[in-house]
Design brief:
320 residues, alpha+beta, 2 domains, two-stranded antiparallel ribbon, 6 helices, 10 strands, 20% strand
């Protein structure tokens, strides 16, 4: 059912359904004309057969009880209230075909009408959902290991850094739902990637977390205490820097969940995307949503409780 709602929420799909519905309704109208023709033709045949029978009865003596007259083409003979003969069969066939086509016409018309109504009904629903739909994004990093290669970026981390940078650029000033985590090297370890100074870039680049000697930028007050992620790789061309809130910077408004055993950082909630770039650097930061509208609150609920909500609850919260 969720897939059907998502399908109907797309404007192009609704236009296609409206077109199909109109075509089916038109086809049903055409079938109805054919049905009327068949039924009228059948009625005329029955009238002609009755007249011919009456003429034959007057011209010939009635048949005996044991003898049955031979059935001639286009003749009709009635026995025990049942009409037999080639003409009667044609008439009966027209009636059967007519009633079957009438059922088909009603079915096509009903389906067409439902498709048209579905398109109109979901037009307003979809516009409100699209306006408040929160994109869900997951960013997973790690604290590296305790060895000499603790700063080296893995291919997956490099991919995640590039995707997140591009996401912030494409969705600047938009609200989205972020699940963010930095996994520790071990449950009792500190984060090895927290270092006094970034290492020299190697073939695998580097990823540094919360460099204590780095001066935080002041594009936003949040940056002064935020988690600072610095990444460099030849594929990135320039330094890529992210600023993500710490636990203390997340507002206590019920929209954020935070904390997890074995994680240097772990939280999720609604944020506003910010992007910046300059000579030799690019990156972005996120601002926690402090005051949320009812639509955003519903969307957060939808994302967190997606598996537990039934269809009607999802429809009520506009989760589709």
């Amino acid at each position: 059912m969720d897939k059907i709602i998502l399908f109907l929420a797309d404007e192009n799909n609704r236009l296609i359904l409206n077109w199909i519905g109109g075509a089916l309704a038109t086809l049903a109208g055409g079938l109805w004309v054919v049905i009327r023709y068949l039924l009228e033709r059948s009625e005329k045949k029955r009238t002609l057969f009755a007249q011919k029978k009456e003429t034959e009865e007057k011209a010939h003596a009635p048949p005996s009880i044991t003898d049955e007259p031979a059935v001639q083409p286009n003749s009709i003979y009635v026995k025990d209230g049942i009409a037999i003969g080639s003409g009667a069969n044609v008439s009966a066939r027209d009636i059967i075909v007519g009633y079957r086509l009438r059922g088909l016409a009603f079915t096509l018309f009903a389906i067409g009408l439902l498709l048209i109504l579905a398109g109109y009904f979901f037009e307003e629903f979809a516009s409100s959902v699209i306006a408040t739909k929160l994109t869900k994004y997951e960013l997973t990093l790690s604290c590296g290991n305790t060895g000499k290669t603790k700063f080296d970026m893995s291919p997956d981390e490099l991919t995640d850094v590039i995707k997140f940078r591009d996401f912030l650029s494409e969705n600047e000033n938009k609200t989205f739902f972020l699940h963010f985590e930095i996994q520790k090297a071990c449950s009792a370890c500190k984060c090895p990637r927290v270092a006094p100074s970034p290492p020299e870039p190697g073939p695998k680049g580097f990823l540094v977390i919360d460099d204590p000697q780095k001066e935080h930028w002041t594009l936003s007050p949040m940056m002064k205490e935020a988690h600072e992620i610095i990444a460099f790789h030849t594929h990135l061309v320039v330094d890529t820097i992210f600023y993500l809130p710490t636990y203390e910077q997340l507002p206590e408004n019920g929209l954020f969940q935070k904390g997890g055993y074995g994680f240097y950082a772990y939280y999720d909630g609604p944020f506003t995307a910010k992007y910046f770039e300059g000579t030799g650097y690019t990156g972005g930061y996120i601002e926690p949503v402090v005051i949320a509208s009812s639509e955003i609150i519903n969307q957060v609920k939808c994302i967190r409780e997606e598996k537990s909500l039934n269809f009607f609850q999802k429809l009520y919260h506009q989760c589709f």
